[in-house]
Amino acid sequence: MKKIMLSMALLLSVGTIMGQAVDKTSLKLAQKEAKALMAEAQKIDQAITEKINAKTATDAEILSECKKGQALITKAIKSGGVAENKLGEAYKISADFAQFPNNVILGQSQTSQPFDTVAFYQNLKNLTSALQGEIQHTKVTKGETGNENYLKGKKANLALSANFYLYAAQLFSECNKYDKAIDAFDVAMNYKNLYPEVADIVKFQIPDEQISYFAFHTAHEGKMYDKMDALYDQAVQFADNAEVTKQVMIESFRERGDTLAWANRIRELTVEEPSANETYIQMLIAYYLKEDKEAGPESNLVLPYVEEILAKAPNILIAQYGKAYKYFESEKYDEAFEAYKKCAEIKDDYYDAWYQCGLCKYRQALALNATVSTIKNQAEAKKALERTKALFGEAIPYFEKARECAPDEPMKWAFELRQCYSVTGQAAKAAEMDKLM
């Protein structure tokens, strides 16, 4: 047994030594290949740089040669074979191969020439990655012969490139490549974290919250709802279009087919800021009324909601009206009357509030009148009839207030007033209403 264990240990030891030997061999090969790749890339870089400086290079030649050179230097860097003290130089070459095409493409865009947006974006990523690599792997030297100012220029270039990501995002949005647009927006929004070397000097042409705003609406156009959710809190900070952002966010839940989430979002928003969101309060009341109606008489989504709103903002007219409407629909006329009267107090010239106050009394009178013939006790029947007349009479001042609010629209109030005047024995006024109908 000891002999077997010893043999296994020896085998493992040999395997480890062989592995180390293979690793050293692989490393030497990688270093040799990287050196050759870098030398070839350097030749292309020097040649195209000379032509560019002499202004003899065509745009097509710049794009072609830089593409070829970038492939070589990228392969060298990724191989892991570039010596540590040569990495700064390698990234400098890579930055050249990205910077030259970047200048060409931006020039083409300024003259409205067509260009490959995907290629532009990939080249931009190559550029910022290379600039960062060069900054990270180049030792700073000071003095007259130092590279301090040179590296400051590289940092300035890296900082400036942040705005190109916004440009790329815009281009992708315009051609409906929303996923790529969002990717570009993400880089822009996280630029200071991705490139901490220039975090203190990055300046975008638009505020940060506006970048989030554009990204949010791009995500909406692309139906990238998870991304919308993630961007919303930042996007809504762009005050100029905050209301539009809120509306788009809310309606997006309907697009997703999630009506419950839509309702919950509106509720959260309106309860938090009732006075700033009365339109949404109205929308949610209408939704809850519909849900209550479909669910049956036991359902009551409206009242708890409007009470929550009114607890924070008692004078929100649409919430008070929703409360009154729900009571009226449930034939709770006394409660409805008080709620409608509160609406009239909030807005004195509110036709609907005055009319509905009168209608609460009117409906109560009709309901009581329908029972008179079924009451066998004459004294009780007489009381019921008198109460019916009294209710019609109580309705009159409210219908008259409604009339004051809409004097030129008798079809809104003349019929009820005629009935009330007729029942209460005011024949002349009833006749007047007849003429107006």
Helix content: over 70%
Percentage of β-strand residues:
under 5%
Gyration radius (Cα, Å) is 39 Å
User: How many runs of DSSP E, i.e. beta strands?
Assistant: 0
Instruction: Assign an overall shape.
Output: rod-shaped
The low-pLDDT segments are: 1-6, 8-19
User: Mean pLDDT across all residues, rounded?
Assistant: 92
- Distance, first to last CA: 116 Å
Q: What string, H for helix and E for strand, traces the elements in order?
A: HHHHHHHHHHHHHHHHHHHH
Number of helices: 20
Secondary-structure-derived class? mainly alpha
Write down the oligomeric state.
single chain
Query: What's the main sheet like?
Result: none
Short account of what is shown:
The protein is mostly helical and 437 residues long. The chain has helices at 2-53, 59-79, 87-110, 117-137, 148-160, 162-174, 178-189, 191-194, 208-221, 225-235, 242-255, 259-272, 278-295, 302-312, 317-329, 333-346, 351-372, 378-405, 414-423, 427-436. Helix 15 packs antiparallel against helix 16 (333-346).
Indicate the topology:
Layout: H1 2-53, H2 59-79, H3 87-110, H4 117-137, H5 148-160, H6 162-174, H7 178-189, H8 191-194, H9 208-221, H10 225-235, H11 242-255, H12 259-272, H13 278-295, H14 302-312, H15 317-329, H16 333-346, H17 351-372, H18 378-405, H19 414-423, H20 427-436
Helix pairs in contact: 1-2, 1-3, 2-3, 3-4, 4-5, 4-6, 6-7, 7-9, 9-10, 9-11, 10-11, 11-12, 12-13, 13-15, 14-15, 15-16, 16-17, 17-18, 18-19, 19-20
Description:
This protein is mainly α and 437 residues long. Among the domains are: 32-205; 332-437, Tetratricopeptide repeat domain (Serine Threonine Protein Phosphatase 5, Tetratricopeptide repeat, Alpha Horseshoe), CATH 1.25.40.10. It has 20 helices and no strands. The protein has helices at residues 2-53, 59-79, 87-110, 117-137, 148-160, 162-174, 178-189, 191-194, 208-221, 225-235, 242-255, 259-272, 278-295, 302-312, 317-329, 333-346, 351-372, 378-405, 414-423, 427-436. α3 (87-110) runs antiparallel to α4 (117-137), α9 (208-221) packs parallel to α11 (242-255) and α16 packs antiparallel against α17. It is rod-shaped. Residues 1-6 and 8-19 have low confidence and may be disordered.
